[in-house]
Design a protein that fits this description.
With about 230 residues, this protein is α+β, with helices and mostly antiparallel strands. It has a single domain, classed as NADH Oxidase. The protein contains 9 helices and 7 strands, in the order E-H-H-H-E-H-H-E-H-H-E-H-E-E-E-H. The longest helix is centred in the middle third of the chain and has 27 residues.
Length: about 230
Amino acid sequence: MAEIINLLIDDVLPSKEDVQKFQGVKNINDTPSILIDSLELSMTLLKEKSKPIAIIEECSKADFKDIYLGEGQNAAESPLSHIIKKAEKLHLFAVTIGGEITKEINKHFDQNEFPIGSFIDSGASLTADNIVAVLESRVANQSTTLAYSPGYCGWHVSGQKKLFQFLRPDKIGITLNDSCLMTPLKSVSGVLVSGPSDIHIFDNNYSFCEECTTYSCIIRMKSITKA
């Protein structure tokens, strides 16, 4: 049975430093005072407008096999298909910080207040990611748990459709359009894979790796090996 989890914004709100680093600022001490003022306001608005919530449900490997296959558009080879075979537990999840924050971002961009809109946008993305991190810790127990989402690592974004059919994130206000884009925009969905840490280690030499712009898998694998 699916579990709905309401979170406190203070538990998932990123730091001002993290928001600046997310935007590529190498030395936060060099940030102009006028931008610091915009950042302070942005963090206040982010805290006021965000409504963090999640839904999570354990999923069998048999059920996930069907979900993962989706519409048959996955990469021929992907790390996730191998990782799942060695997993101990799987949980489908979806998280969001609500639609009000998107309205706030758009409002500031429409008013040409680009620094504020940009800071809120970055902070909102980090907040959603932090909710996923909370879920990873929640189900980890004695295992290493990491999240994998449609649209990454060879799992085609159309996989969202069957994931949504199984999990029903509409219970927490998340919907999916025909292009598999989620509303509210600051939402994340996927599968939490729990198991020995080494199942999450793989060579990033798949065909789709050449198109990757974040290399987040490398960062995550380094965090595992350092733990």
